Amino acid sequence: MKKIFINLAIWIILFFLIIQIYPDSQNNSNERITENNNTGSESRKYFMGFNVNWQNDMSLYKEQFKEAAKYSDIIMSVYNPSWEKLKNPNNSFYKSSNIERIIFEQNLIKENDKKSLLAFNIFDSKNRDKLINLPSNYKQDSSLDTEIIFNNLIEEIIFFTQAYEPDYFAIGIEINLTYEKNPSIFRSYLNFYSDAFKEIKKINPNIKVFPIFQYEELLGIMSGSARHTPRWEMVNMFSKQIDVFAISSIPSRLSVTERDVPANYYNQLTNITTRPIIFTGIGFSGSTNRLEETPTISEQNRFMKTFFADIKNLNCEAVIWIQLNDFSDQDNGILHEYGLIDKNEKHKDAFKEWIKNLNNKKITKK
To answer: Which CATH superfamily is domain 38-362 in?
Structure first.
């Protein structure tokens, strides 16, 4: 009888211990799935990462950059020209407003053995034929044909090449939108790009240099733009000075449901280029609000599953999701919900799908 009582007591103690442990394991489930441990059952040939949005808040930016690095092999950063030499010819780029950010990013990237993609923006996103952030003492209609502006940008490209040492360097973002707005300005950009390409390769021939195209505009189906036949010939305008074919693409701007995105939406790229493909800003909105004509979290998740299944047939080198965190635009208060983590810091359904693919073993090219 005494033996039975002792055994019963032991089982009761074990039962309560299990109850205590189980909730903790449930609460910490997010911690387990965030590790990039390459333990998935499949493999992948491409890097995965995020673009981190600059919001004029260094503390917030550093916090979000560190978080994005946890779920990435590669990090994308977008920089605008500082125009330091236009402000004062004696100024140094090493004393520009960008330098703190550059030092922080490079230290974190190297310490965590990540790849880096630096995207250098040239044109204003709201006026694609206007140079971005020109100093007030320069006419706003100044162009890349202006010698002092041309030379200043080349100097800044050289500075970024030496100071940032990126693995990938994009010169111009969604540059075909500038072509649609003003072909003459685009031709000036091509001349600038050619010189920038040469200067980068002089410093480090291993850096992969390229422009970024907007995919829906290339197809001629961009919302709010005039319809046209696909402009694949634009790739040839860069001659051989393009190391990878890079596109941004946000199909949710065309449709609120993943099912409306054409089958094999990206597979036609195999017929256009033999170059490796990089998705620099792939995205699909996932709203927490159940509003009509707004893509839902479920639609975002469905898009991501279809996307990763489709690109298995592509020569894909990197996939960069447009943003990890949802954020509100400081200028207009609009909430951008392309992130995989909502404004309340809750993981969306697509976050788990991202981690699932991230944990697939990365095959390194020899």
So the answer is: Glycosidases (3.20.20.80)
